[in-house]
Amino acid sequence: MSTTILRPARLALPLLAALALGACANMNPTTRNVAGGTAGGAALGGIIGSFTGDAGFGALLGAGAGAAGGYLYDQSQQQQYQNRRPPRRY
């Protein structure tokens, strides 16, 4: 590919990343954990899938596993928070 075609993409990608991160500002913790797990799982699944020749399918499986992992992590954190005892007052 020509560098003339890629030049606008190099300028647009940081802007797109900043807008995407700005959209996460008002998320509740559950949504944030699931979205983070999905993104991480998709990235890792895409890398692992590229070794077998099908990065898209690996990213799809990784996104599903990451979303499930993020949700389970969130539920674990909420349960620990609810099971905390308040400090004793003397």
TrEMBL record:
<protein>
    <recommendedName>
        <fullName>Glycine zipper domain-containing protein</fullName>
    </recommendedName>
</protein>
<feature type="signal peptide">
    <location>
        <begin position="1"/>
        <end position="25"/>
    </location>
</feature>
<dbReference type="InterPro" id="IPR039567">
    <property type="entry name" value="Gly-zipper"/>
</dbReference>
<dbReference type="Pfam" id="PF13488">
    <property type="entry name" value="Gly-zipper_Omp"/>
</dbReference>
<keyword id="KW-0732">Signal</keyword>
<feature type="domain" description="Glycine zipper">
    <location>
        <begin position="36"/>
        <end position="77"/>
    </location>
</feature>
